[in-house]
Structure formats: structure tokens, C-alpha cells
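Thread amino acids onto this structure.
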């Protein structure tokens, strides 16, 4: 493989291109240590050394990202991709942290449910978790364990809104309906509760 370009990125980093394809970001001292130069071919030994260095860095970065915030597998991959690691390095780094149980989508769903379920509709939780890359099958299997009463949650949310915005009246009925409909609560539940609380 030939290094077609070494592109300066800021003061510290260099983007490495192999055969005109973007490969990774490196620091200047790593470029020097590996002896990488534009238009030169990289032998297998140096290529293996480069990938070992990238994998080590990706593992450390993955651990660091998980230290500060829970993430799904998809979210972790996206964060590592933003740092321009090659795809196979990202896969290996994610498998590494997964093997220690540091990333576990099922455990993530459980924590998310404990934290978010008391204030959100089932549809909203589902949408948010799917955006984070959680499979619908996994979500459904975990969901069955929860005693989730959407009507109770909606009633609590409505009471909270009444405390903040004032009572439900003919004048703000539609506005209140729209607010809860956008949160994914069922139309019938919203209508019944709004009628119950309407002054």
C-alpha cells in the first residue's frame, strides 16, 4: 500500500491516506516513529504496527467514553467513527469492551427504563431507544418485565403540567392535547384524562 497523502489537521494531527483513500488520524510523533512518508510504500510489518497502535488507542477511547456515560453499541461505534478509526478497528475495540460487559444493550434498556419510564410514553421510549440502535426485539423482551401503566404516567404528567401551566379549560384543551400527543401518548387516554381534569 502506498501513502498517497499526509494531510495536516490542526497542529497535532495528520490524516493518513492510502491509495487516495482516507485511513486514519495520527499524531506527528507516530508518523515519525513509524517512518511514514508520502508516496512511499508501507510494508506489512509497519502496517501491522500501525493497526496495533490504532486498536490500542480505540480501546482506550472506548473505555473513556463509557466511563462518563452509558452508551449503546451503535452510539459507541458512531463516536469512534467520528475520530476516524478504520471500521475493522472500531469493530475490534467495541468487541473488546463488550467482552468485559462494559457495553450491553439489554442492561442499557433496563437503566433507561428505570430512569425515563416514569415520564414518557411507551412510543416515545421506543423511538428514542431505536434511534440509539437498540433492536425492537430486544426492547420488546425487556419491556415485558416492566409494570408500565401508561395511563398512570400520563395522569402524573398532566397533573404536573396543570401545576406549571394552570388548569385545563376549553381555551387550552387542544393545546394540552397536542402537547401529550407529540409525546406519543394514545389519543383516547389523553382525551379521557383531559375531560376528567377540565374545569
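Threaded sequence (199 positions):
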Amino acid at each position: 500500500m502506498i501513502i498517497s497523502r499526509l494531510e495536516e489537521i490542526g497542529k497535532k494531527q495528520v490524516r493518513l491516506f492510502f491509495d487516495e483513500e482516507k485511513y486514519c488520524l495520527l499524531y506527528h510523533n507516530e508518523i515519525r516513529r513509524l517512518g511514514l512518508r508520502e508516496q512511499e510504500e508501507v510494508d506489512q510489518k509497519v502496517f501491522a504496527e500501525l493497526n496495533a497502535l490504532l486498536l490500542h488507542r480505540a480501546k482506550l477511547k472506548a473505555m473513556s467514553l463509557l466511563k462518563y456515560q452509558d452508551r449503546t453499541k451503535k452510539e459507541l461505534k458512531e463516536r469512534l467513527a467520528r475520530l476516524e478509526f478504520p471500521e475493522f478497528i472500531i469493530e475490534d475495540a467495541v468487541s473488546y469492551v463488550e467482552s468485559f460487559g462494559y457495553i450491553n444493550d439489554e442492561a442499557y434498556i433496563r437503566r433507561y427504563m428505570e430512569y425515563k419510564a416514569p415520564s414518557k410514553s411507551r412510543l416515545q421510549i421506543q423511538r428514542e431507544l431505536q434511534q440509539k440502535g437498540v433492536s425492537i426485539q430486544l426492547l420488546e423482551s425487556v419491556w415485558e418485565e416492566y409494570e408500565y401503566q401508561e395511563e398512570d404516567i400520563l395522569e402524573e404528567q398532566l397533573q404536573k403540567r396543570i401545576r406549571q401551566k394552570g388548569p385545563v379549560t376549553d381555551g387550552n384543551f387542544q393545546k394540552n392535547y397536542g402537547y401529550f400527543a407529540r409525546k406519543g401518548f394514545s389519543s383516547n387516554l389523553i382525551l379521557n384524562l383531559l375531560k376528567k381534569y377540565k374545569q
